[in-house]
Amino acid sequence: MKKEINFVLNKKGVNITTDPLRRLLDILREDLGLKGVKEGCGEGECGSCAVIINNRIVNSCIVAVGTVEGAEIITIEGYRKTKQYKLLEDSFAEAGAVQCGFCTPGIIIAAETLLRINPEPNENAIRDAISGNLCRCTGYNMIVEGIKIASQKGKGLW
Amino acid sequence: MKQKISIPIKKSDVPEKAGGSAKYIADIEFEGMLYAKTLRSDRPRARINSIKIPELPEGYYIVDKNDIPGKNRVKMIIDDQPFFAEDVVNYIGEPILLVVGPDKEKVFEIVYKIKVYYEDIEPIFTIEEAEKEKKNPIYGDDNCFAEYEFKKGEPEKAFATLSYIVEDEYSTDYQEHIYLEPQGVVGIYENGKVTVYGAMQCPYYVKNALLQAFGWDENRIRVVQTTTGGAFGGKEEYPSLIAGHAAFAAVKTGKPVQLVFDRNEDIEVTTKRHPSSIKFKTALDENNRIIAMDVDIKIDAGANAGLSDVVLQRSMFSATGVYNIPNIRVRGKALATNKVPSGAFRGFGAPQVFFAIEMHMYHIADKVGMEPIDFKTKHILMRGDTTSTGGLLRSEVKLPEIIDTIDKMSQYREKYEKFKKKRDGLKGIGFSLFFHGCGFTGSGEKDLIKAKVKLKKKKNDKVEILVSNVDMGQGAQTALRKIVSYSLDKPIEHIIYENPDTDRVPDSGPTVASRTVMIVGGLLEKAARKLKERWNEAPELEIVERYKQPEYIRWDQKKFKGDAYPEYSWGANVVEVEIDPVTYEIKVLGIWGVYDVGVAIDEKMLRGQIEGGIIQGLGFATIEVMNIKDGKIQQDTITDYIIPTSKDFPKIEIKLIDNPYEYGPFGAKCAGELPFVGAAPALASAVQYALNVPIRKIPVTPELLLSYVNLINKPQNSKELRECLTTEHVPPLRDPEVSGTEIAELKETS
Amino acid sequence: MVSAYRPENLKEALLRRKEFRVIPFAGGTDLMVKGRRWSGLAPHFELPVLFIGHLGELKNVELEQNCLRIGSCCTLSYLLENENMPQAIKIALWMFASPAIRNIGTIGGNICNASPAGDTLPVLYAVNASVVLKNTNGIREVPIEQFIKGVGKTVLQDDELLKEIIIPIKSFDTIYYRKVGTRKANALSKISFLGLAKIKNGLIEDIRISFGAVAPTVVRSMEIEDRLKGKTKKYIKQIIPEICSQYSTLIKPIDDQRSNAYYRKIVSLRLLKHFLTKDIL
Fold this sequence. Notes:
The structure holds 3 protein chains of 3 kinds. Chain B is of the alpha+beta class. In chain B, 30% of the residues lie in helices and 23% in strands.
């Protein structure tokens, strides 16, 4: 049975009427057309579908949309408009952190939620922060480097 | 000397990928698109007696073997794989039919309601069973998709005269690709023409498969690659199968049909790395020099032939590693079993064999009382030597420099000595040497591929690259644009590369075996230089370049004699580990790699290949466990089939040795597979050194190491090693229930 | 059919619980995976779910004089960041899944799942946690080892919700936690081991030992622990084989896709022995 659900998505209010058990991932991708949120596994293991909900990283494939009533959600589509994103994008390019790119939006989200609370993370903190984001191309070191570069260049930004 | 082209530039696709605007196949919506779900066999081997299908609501369809206009076989080396099962199924997950319709909920429900009535047939699950079973083989009369043998020198004579012989047997298991983007295609039928969009490595493989399946005229089939989220070989041959599915469905329904796998479906039914069993028999003379080697390789191909024939060939051509051995016999078999078909995966049969040969060399070194690095170095191939197939090594083989460099970087010898004399926990260090044969086997480029590339100069002075090779993350679009830009002396922004569309691009061959840079890049370099000369001839120009085999290549495909590959890339790895004395978990402390890939087209992108390849290789060597029990994959979710995370392995130190290849673009050879190949043997050697037990199998899991516990306490181990282990050691139990005698043993060691 | 209820408060949630058979749904990290079908489709459950993860009454951590009360719907991240959380719990939480899972997964969910590999369970057993179950009539408090009955089985009644977890306050000098996982992060446990000890004047004043993922429920034995209390290092060294043998009868692991029974059993005992010989004294 459908229910009305309200939340804030990328700074804009959203009101939808749908089955509250549907996955947030499907709402974002299918109902709202936000295809930057990727489905890599559908069971919360790979982090490709990561979004920010109330300032924290969450895998949208295991979130029932009925549970995000009143929440504030940021997806890569909202985040990519920020200065912080631009810096992360440049730093990732500089570090060679992007190969096939399927995991990248999720990892950018993980980087943002890390830098937000820890603007100068050490290597361990970076590895912890992206430990729920699988990448099969890079072996991670170049991603870790990308986040380090962003942190160094982004003094005062986070 | 560093070449100018090697200086890194930013990959051009970063903004769209990082920002999430890049469109992968699942991100593209076509108007009126229907969704397909596959009904699959849940039996490893059975006859299909009947299929009961519920009444279909309007707008819903079944697509099966009867909807294939041409041949119900996926075009491959041997056409044995049906698009949809006919009267028998041969593995759990084999496609039987599709349910197609507009509402996923209903499609799902229909699939759920279909009943298939089977009559089970005795299945064949292992290489041994496949060899034995002659009454009811899966394939041919001996279950063998391919069987080869080749020789060099006079191995029989050598074995007859030499008395010091070392024999070993090794095995490797499945590995799943886990490209982050699951497989997916969309089929469209418009105006009598079928178009398939999808994630793939080889648009023309797909096109050719569709041509055979439809039996239509060439211009009625079109294949377009969409941004591909990783492949590693997994999107080499497999997409041909599902492209067929989506295309048949599109033709039947008249609507676009999307077939995108969920992850777990992808794990269960797509191809994997071939499990292998590899035996060595090696004869040495009184100077501890290897005089002859006999290698017997068996790979588990699964239910269909797929590419197993060529995977087997590559494994055979890698059998004796980087070593110069005068007398060789290599035998190989690819066997049919009732399991998911094995297929292409980064390294293509070579990683299995390099693990085995490197461990075998280590074992022999131990036996003759030499350090592995010295024993291996004593046998390395050099320029002027011949390979196992008798191909002459024309270029300089820089292995001595590679070995010296990696030793300095990793302090391998120093640590090896240190760990030998004094134990600091259960530390070990391992070393591997390896090559990768670049591109297709022998004269495959000339005889099979016949690559053709096109450069198109446009009115606005921009130049478009028209090739069928794809960017699947490795950076082909940046690398190829870089090659053209440097050859033309035009800014890279002026060079256009778009995802291949078979209606626009010539067949420059598949995106495999690192041939994209070496072969296709080489052709583009030539084309670009021609274009440069003719630049002012006309506002619009088209240059077509076709592959011409370098004169030096000699290859007899029947006898496996000559240059098995046009050229080789070389490398060495060192891995340092520490084993937890309580749990036997392996912690990797350091990773080093030195590579000769000719010249790097872009050092950063190359580093990306190396880093990613090593970590994939270490995953293969350690944590990536996949067992099939009664035909069913036990680790069939991404929660249970695990790949490395950011915390599993440390930083990697890498150095490149320049060694330009005359026929490669800017001197480039192959680089994609090479880094994968050496990781597992280096890791396994380090573990072997730490525990002083022979590692004969990967993945090296803590469970495997525990099973060696009784070997660990063998008397010839050093006192330190024994002490280090026995203080922690609870003796192994034959049964999980501890028996009285075992408790007594426990007491003794405490 | 109603697929989900979203009550405004705990009272309403308990009323729903009383009126209908529903599946309590806190973070949903496990349920959403269990019920999944196909990309694009809502997960399927036999019963409607009752969202409770948002209920403020279930999200507090309160420090009382002798105990800590943890609301069942506190997320694992929230607990990890809470200054009052005992160190032993923090260590277990730190190794729990990934940041994104910890951000919505709840402690109550992990308990009620009653998975043999549930990563909060060994520590909750070891610290003598109890759970408070509430229905519309009132509450009852049940020790955790009595709450969990088997794989996926608890004594939670159809009309009850897990309200909070009570942890008696007690400090330990030694915390030895080992999660032997399938990999180094974001992993499921093959074995987990927790040893806690408090030493006074060379004698063991208190000791707690629990094992996860090696039997249908967490293995902990008060009887064996009692034998170790008040003893010296020397004495313990002597009786290690006996202790191992006693635990050995309680540890009943299985072969599965992540490890095998043999490894689980041997390594559990090795971890125990390591704790008793190296770590505590």
